[in-house]
What we know:
Layout: H1 8-13, H2 36-54, H3 65-74, H4 79-82, H5 87-90, H6 95-115, H7 120-131, H8 139-161, H9 174-182, H10 197-213
Amino acid sequence: MNEPKLQVKELCLGLVTRLRYIKRFSVAHVQHIEAVAEHSFYTAWYCLLIGNALQTTSMNELPNMEVLLTKALIHDVDEAFSGDVIRMFHRDGGDLERLIHDRAGLMVRRFVSQVTNNNESMELQFMHNWEKAKDKDTVEGCIVAYADFLSVLSYVVQEVDGGNRRLLDHLADIEEYAESFSSDHRFDFLWEVVEGHRSMVTWLKNELNTRRQG
Length: 214
C-alpha cells in the first residue's frame, strides 16, 4: 500500500509555518526579534558543524547525522501551539515541567500527524526524535542540547554586544546553564572540537556584573 503523500498546502500554510511568527525572549526588551524557526535553524546549523567536526576525531561512537539534524529541527515544534515558554518558568525540575512536557507531547503528536499527512511510520519516527531530542544518554542528544544552548548564547551575545544591556536582567541563570555542560562528563567529547565555551560565558558574566553595579 502506498504511503500518504506530503501535501503542498500543509507545507505552505500548515502548523509548521507558525514557527516563523512565534517570538522568543517574549518578556525581554530586544533589538532583534528572533522567531522559533530562526532559533531552530541555528540549532541545526551548530549540530551540522559539530557533527562534521567529530567525524575527524577518534570518537568510538560518531553521531548519526540524519538523526542529529532531525532532532535539531523538530526539538521546539511544540511551540507552534504554546508559544515560547520562558526557561525560568518551565525548567523547575518538578511537577510543572513534567505537566508542560506531557501537554507538549499531545500537541506534537497533532503537529506531526498533520505535517506527515498521517504517514504512520514517519509519525512514529518524528515523535521519537522529538521526545528524545536532548537525551543526554545519546551522542545526538548531547549535541542537540549543546547546540540549543549555543543558539541562545549567540543571540544573547549579539544583543549585548550591540548595546542591549536590559536583556542582561533576564540572564540570571546563564552561567548555571553554561556550567551544566562543562561539569557533565557526558559532554566531554564536545571539547575535542569546541573551544572558548567558558571565556564567552565569562564575558557575559562580566557584562552582567557591570550592569548590576551601574
